[in-house]
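Holo prediction — magnesium ion.
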Amino acid sequence: PYDEEATEDYIFKIVLTGDSAVGKSNLLSRYARNEFFPSSKTTIGVEFQTQSMVIDGKQIKAQIWDTAGQERFKAVTAAYYRGAVGALVVYDISRRQSFDDIGRCLEELRVHSDMSVVAMLVGNKCDLGHLREVSSEEGRRLAESEGMFFMETSALNSTNVKEAFETVITEIFNVVS
Ligand code: GDP
Ligand code: MG
């Protein structure tokens, strides 16, 4: 069997950020392993998972980092963002507070990462339309004003999960290649 580890042409570090319980860990498990966990399990420390895709015949490995965002030490936050070339900044469309906190998340991202980081604003839990507190239009407007991509996703029913990650990965590829 060939060594999959040795074949990639590019490795992109992508970070997940956003309030606790917005679905960051489930977006990652849905994308990387097609798994969903109905009950919340607290992310302890920092974890990452990888997923590969091919663009223009190049093998790309996305290394996607996930955290509970409760780091008490600035050094950990700095290490989390260091070298990141992409970011998914996530809120929950059924929880207004998580949208109001996006500004703080963006500030942290900008302090700790490069200007050129490819960022997407993600309104997760779009399956909860009956509980919606943030309109699609508000999300789109914020993303536009911050120069970010925008998508609404559902880790529960898989809506736009692959599309969100692959849009970011493809854009990074277009920038670096
Ligand atoms: P994190 O703290 O941001 O990593 O959030 P989790 O991934 O742990 O998810 C928090 C809770 O929201 C869990 O109970 C998940 O099952 C649930 N959840 C995550 N994504 C979705 C989604 O797209 N739709 C719905 N309805 N629930 C979700
Ligand atoms: Mg988590």
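READOUT: The helical segments are 24-33, 74-81, 96-100, 102-112, 136-145, 161-176.
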